[in-house]
Amino acid sequence: INNVGMTAVVVETAFSTPLAAQRSFCCFEIYATLSHPRKKLQAAMVEEPPLSLWCRCRSLRPPEFRLQDAKCRDPAHQQHIYEQLCEDPGIDMANSDCASALKSSIQQHLCIRLFNENLFYALAPILFYLFLDSMLPSPTRVCSP
Asked: For the whole model, what pTM was predicted?
């Protein structure tokens, strides 16, 4: 994570807790991303909400993180991750930090999407006009003596 500088989290929908929050190692990676020095946490949406729901996205509740209930294939790894998070910063703080960081990343993703789509709709008529203008022959001037 230190070398890459960011972590991408797959988020199924903007309104539900991602499956990654149920896996010990994913939770640990998210927390490690937020640790000092803090790296970028990027949400990757599987299902984009329609723009009509964007207002609802602004008031998103943080996804629910319960690191103490997260699962791992290897029980020894799960126990080690749990103990490490309990030791520093504490499981409640880790849950809270991960949830608020992921909420912020989801909102940022949706704001960028909204901006890009609105920018396209704002610029499309101008670009279309410029395209048509370049395709039409320029008017010739008729001069009378």
From this structure: 0.68
